[in-house]
Amino acid sequence: MSCPQPAIMVNDVQLRFLCPEDIHTVKKLCSDWFPIEYPDSWYEEITSNPKFFSLAATFQSNIIGLIVSEVKSRNKIHKEDRTILASSYPDNTQVAYILSLGVVQEFRQHGIASLLLETLLAHLTTSERHNVKAVYLHVLTTNTTAIRFYEHRSFRRHNYLPYYYAIKGVPKDGFSYVLYINGGKPPWTFTDCISYMFAHLQHLQLCSLPQRLLRRLSTTVWGVVPLLYSPHRKANGPCHTM
Question: Residue 119's closest CA among 199, 189, 179, 54?
């Protein structure tokens, strides 16, 4: 028999920033939620350093959820994540990284995680943050709950990261997910280039390329593209959980 869910509405939840007095509580919550062990210095940083957007959701004065994010310049993030933005963006373009997002088990399915994420996105899309062009995160490939949560909120999978995590000494694969904001754009793929080229060829109605030949050329190229991007081809590249 399942435990009864607490009667709670989002309007009953209060939001506040984490402070050093929350370290003990945050440690306990993270150890319950995440398979990764964070050093004490990490907890000290996220509860005291203003460079982190560390927001707690509380109910009856108790922390029931939290989100931690940090804004960095593109040239300061890990190498495997620098392809999140199109190459035309300068190195000082900013991106926001979600380090953690979690909700206490018995308070899930009440919109708490959505509230925390929406508050972060509202913060990042103000005029003062116009240079932040993307929000990204990492997630275990096996964490289907978190993956569905982010995909439902328009995050797209960017990269496959083999052996990205070490969980109790065991290597685990991860994905990176990204949401583009403030006009941010992803890098162009080979498929994008082909689509652009054929769209313009068809628009120009080139005399030197009769429509019959153009259609045949288009069919040939699009027959090759799936082979180049087959899901069975291993992606290049080397936590985030719900």
Answer: 54
Q: Which helix (H) or strand (E) covers residue 208, if one does? A: none
Catalytic residue among 138, 164, 165, 177: 138
More confident residue, 198 or 1: 198
Question: With contact defined as beta carbons under 8 Å apart, do 34 and 104 qualify?
Answer: no
Tracing tokens 């289907």 back to the chain, one arrives at 144
Share above pLDDT 90 across residues of the chain, in percent, rounded to a whole number: 69
* DSSP H/E element including 12: none
Three-state SS at 236: coil
Does the annotation mark 97 as catalytic? yes
pTM of the model: 0.77
Q: Which of 43, 89, 97, 150 is catalytic?
A: 97
| Dihedrals phi, psi of 99, to nearest 5 degrees | -80, -40
E strand or H helix that includes residue 57: strand 52-59
What is the spatial distance between Cα 161 and Cα 235, in angstroms, rounded to a whole number?
Answer: 8
Predicted pLDDT of residue 88 = 92
* For residues 142-150, average pLDDT: 97
Strand pairing class (62-73; 132-140): unpaired
At what angle are helices 211-228 and 190-204 packed, to 10 degrees? Answer: 170
